[in-house]
Amino acid sequence: MPDIDRERAWLLTVDGAPQSYVDLDDPTHIEFEYLRRLAHVVDCVADDGAPLDVLHLGGGALTLPRYVAATRPGSRQDVVDADRALVQLVREHLPLSPDAGIALHAADARAWVERAPAASADLLVADVFGGSRVPAHLTSLAYARLAQRVLRPGGVYAANLADGAPFTFLRSQLATFQAVFTEVALIAEPSVLRGRRFGNAVLLASAHPLDVASLARRTAGDAFPARVEHGDSLRRFIGNAQPVTDADAQPSPEPPHGAFSIG
């Protein structure tokens, strides 16, 4: 069940695992490293301050939507989360400003994308976990094509994924989105990419060139620096991995015990 720990600076946990960290007084403060990388994507996807239309699949405590609202006033955002208890908890205990431009919906992520208007989003962020695993129905070619349909020309898809060596899941996801989008990139810590530990990785996809240089500068300057893999290095990482169909889709692997625990 979701829970908010007010003694730990608005830390939202789900079944004991950290889910979101929110500073209502400073929505630009982002505690979790993977969310900082998604915030860098927000910063690089358009000119500074330009409003965006954003679809978030998975909401948590709305850390990233709050960041978008603060840094890009006038943005319109839909946040979709299947966890109705979490949605209600956030509405009651972590309220949004009426003029934030954020609409929160309790619904299945893929079903929402299937119904969403074509070319309606500048940015689609997928941060969906059933427990600690990315659901299988959000990993396939059919899903990637749905995401592509929702994005405007030049729009960017960004997904928070989790895996460890030998990266069977992560490589298959990259191969899947590479089969649909012209440009694909990956942001992750070197220790994760070298297989030293299980961790988060942000997959990026677009029909147009990604601002890899700006992303690399921003992620390299974080407290826990990350690398941006793109082009030849990413193709080597993908290797002979194949795209995933709905018929053979699997959820992301179960994290090792304690991989995402608090403290």
The largest sheet has its strands arranged as 6-5-4-7-8-10-9-11
- Shape descriptor reads globular
Any idea how many domains?
1
Q: Can you count the helices?
A: 9
Low-confidence stretches: 4-8
What is the name of the CATH topology? Rossmann fold
Rg, alpha carbons: 17 Å
Helix/strand order, N-terminal first: EEEHEHEHEHEHEHEHEHEH
The CATH architecture: 3-Layer(aba) Sandwich
The CATH class, by name, is Alpha Beta
Distance between the first and last residues' Cα: 19 Å
Question: What would CATH call the homologous superfamily?
Answer: Vaccinia Virus protein VP39
In percent, how helical is the residue content? 25-40%
Number of beta strands = 11
Main beta sheet: 8 strands, mixed
Question: What does the average pLDDT come to?
Answer: 91
Q: What is the chains' assembly state?
A: single chain
Going by helix content, strand content and strand pairing, the class is alpha/beta
Please provide a written account of the structure:
By secondary structure, the chain is an alpha/beta fold. It has a single domain, classed as Rossmann fold. 30% of the residues lie in helices and 25% in strands. The protein has nine helices and eleven strands. It has helices spanning 33-44, 63-71, 84-93, 109-115, 141-150, 168-178, 190-193, 212-220, 232-238, and strands at residues 2-5, 11-14, 17-21, 53-57, 76-81, 102-106, 121-126, 151-163, 183-188, 199-206, 227-230. The strands form two sheets. Strands 6-5-4-7-8-10-9-11 form an eight-stranded mixed β-sheet, with helices on both faces. A three-stranded antiparallel β-sheet has the order 1-2-3, covered by helices on one side. Strand 1 and strand 2 (11-14) form a beta hairpin. Helix 1 (33-44) packs parallel to helix 2 and helix 1 (33-44) runs antiparallel to helix 8. The longest helix has 12 residues, at 33-44. The radius of gyration is 17 Å and the shape is globular. The two termini are 19 Å apart. Residues 4-8 have low confidence and may be disordered.
